Amino acid sequence: MSDYDLIVLGAGPAGAAAAIKARSLGLSVAVIDEAPAAGGQVYRAPSPALTATQPDADRAKGDALRARLAASGAVLYANHRVWSLTPSFSVISIGPDGPLTLEASNLVVAAGAVERHIPVSGWTLPGVIGLAGATVLLKAHGVLPGRRAVVAGSGPLLLLVASKIVAAGGEVVAVVDAAPRTSWLARAWAMLARPDLMAKGAGWLLALLKARVPIHSGVAIRKVHGTDGVEAITIGPVDRDWRPVAGSERTIPADAVCLGFGLLPSTEVTRLLGAEHRYEPELGGWIPTVDATLQTSVPGLFVAGDGAGVRGADAAPLSGELAALGVARRFGRGGELASEATKIEAAWHRSARFGTAMSALAMPLPGAAAIIAGETTVCRCEGLSRATLDAAIAAGARTLADLKATTRCGMGPCGGRVCGETAAMLIAAATGWDRQAIGQPSARPPLRPVPLAAITGAFDYDDLPIPAPAPL
Questions:
Q1: Strand pairing partners for 94?
Q2: pTM, full prediction
Q3: pLDDT band (50, 70, 90) for residue 52
């Protein structure tokens, strides 16, 4: 017998909305999240140790979301890291009190997204941090990533992070965007679908202009310089395919680099449970194949939020509600909720237009593979350079599984989350293979690194039962 009608993985905007909606329909719901409080990356709760902070709109929205979730009656298991699941939706996690296993007849995966990285020479130096990591420092802890930071990569997160650094009193010495200005202009029509979000982005840009922050478009980082930390960066122009253009390089002193190239849907859980996936570059990459209520090919397994395709924080709650209605339909309530589901689905698609355009804007173009120098480390867990991976590809590796078998790329603690897309980019650049054919990294437990002692608990070897030897 199941513990709950529904388990929701993730307490961000999508997961919280799914739980709140499901509870309003009378379903028993558990929510599991790694963070100490609900909110996700967008509405991350500030650290209790953080004082004297300035209130902002995102924090207010996060507080309201946490209050609604608490009032809904859903059971929140915060500070719990899910490391394995079974096809019967047994969710196995590690929390403050040790291992916890919960079961449900339905599962909504609202695991969000992970950062996409394009390695550059020197990106392993102390002082180089992802854009999402920088937002955690700023939002949750009020900590600047450095005294003189460069914000680089692609997509709207560049403006968000840079503006937050300026608002927190830091210095941004440059914003370096690989996408040309024409790419932004080409998506202006989709942006107009959400004038409020467009105005928010314009506010970020205005804050940077007021602070006289140089903004370089159609430019990418060539190299991060330093010995024990970041000391400077070299930047240079890229062409329309993001291939480096010779000449016009310049070096900028800096002590921190915030680097990222958009977001990838988090699909470890749906891959582990055997759901079908397809490759949609405008939605961030690989996403589960779903029906109108966001149910995957596995009955009872739903996705919501950026894990169903990177569509942005404002579309996420609507996808969570839609998934909750899909769960209710499995309990025989489809007819009475059909009209509401149709309205929510339409609103979700309208809201997603802006987020989809932003996701596509951040998506690296094929020429970006040329940014990665031969000596650059691609797989940080296993210490593998581009030259090592290129040699394996030249020897016949054509899929991510091939590279894993021949080089161990993707076998470290990150499970391919950091290096997988870069490895696929290198295969495509060398072979011309379609991204769908190159495949996804495999998913297997543990989905996240966990201490072995936390799984096994305390025991004495003398207490282990030893069966009697078999008769001769």
A1: 81, 99
A2: 0.91
A3: very low
